[in-house]
Amino acid sequence: MSSPIFALSGVGVRYGKNTALAGVDLTVEPGERVAIIGPSGAGKSTLIGVLNGTIAATSGEVTALGCDYRRASAREIRKSQRRVGTIHQRFDLVEQLRTVHNVNAGRLGSWPFWKAALSLLLPRDVQRVQAALDRVGIGDKLHHRTGDLSGGEQQRVAIARVLVQDPVMILADEPVASIDPARGREIMSLLLELSAEVGVTLLACLHDVEMALGSFERVVGLRAGQIAFDKKRADLTDDEVDALYAFERATEPR
Length: 254
Ligand SMILES: Nc1ncnc2c1ncn2[C@@H]1O[C@H](COP(=O)(O)OP(=O)(O)OP(=O)(O)O)[C@@H](O)[C@H]1O
Description:
The protein is of the alpha/beta class. The protein contains nine helices and ten strands. The strands form two sheets. The chain has a six-stranded mixed β-sheet, with helices on both faces. It has a four-stranded antiparallel β-sheet with strand order 2-1-4-5, with helices on one face. A hairpin with a 2-residue loop joins strand 1 and strand 2. Helix 5 crosses helix 6 and helix 6 packs parallel to helix 7. The structure holds adenosine-5'-triphosphate. Adenosine-5'-triphosphate is lined by residues 15, 18, 20, 38, 40-46. It holds the Pfam family ABC_tran. InterPro entries: AAA+_ATPase, ABC_transporter-like_ATP-bd, ABC_transporter-like_CS, ABC_transpr_PhnC, MetN_ABC_transporter-like, P-loop_NTPase. This is ABC-type phosphate/phosphonate transport system, ATPase component.
């Protein structure tokens, strides 16, 4: 049996007195597609940060791609992080740069410094960038200024940036929250297609519960930093989903 992509055991994250995650156990196997849902402040973004290594757990154990974050060297952690691509709600692109440079940013971590620096003047590996942009449906935007693209196109650039990383895992933190609903559905379909096509594992945090339930085979509910449920979509009931958001609904302004 292959080893899990991620294994979290008893993971907690505190920001000062604030507990963002507590006692989280989560295992993600290769090829799985997992949606994380939960009310605002439940800890979804923190969980993504723990998985991609940008946020350190304050307790518990995190193993990513066989690398134990607590015991591994910084070099080993960086090596495993390079195979984890993250897509953010706000794209995290440099708007002034041409698309080709933003996509190449996905490879900076695996290039020596001279190559990374030179790539800002002279785009490197353009064929690979072109192939990634073709795959996400904006092959004609290679030399466009990124800030001139629409929100949906910018999110496609961000996905292309992850593809050139040759990832084994894609983490998506509210990938469609800044895009209009129709474009958002297209982006979500693209991510699901890519994960199936390349066999890459996908974990996405989503505010849109309908989208999560309609598109993912496994759904994890987070509430107040803890896992409320972790189930196959087919086994999840409406009552369980409602209960996850019950407190948020009760405190919504009327
Ligand atoms: N840098 C920080 N400093 C202090 N508290 C933080 C910090 N980042 C997050 N928190 C707190 O940790 C908790 C979890 O936040 P997180 O952003 O992970 O939740 P979320 O589920 O992604 O929320 P949202 O859906 O609103 O984006 C919240 O109570 C939040 O206020």
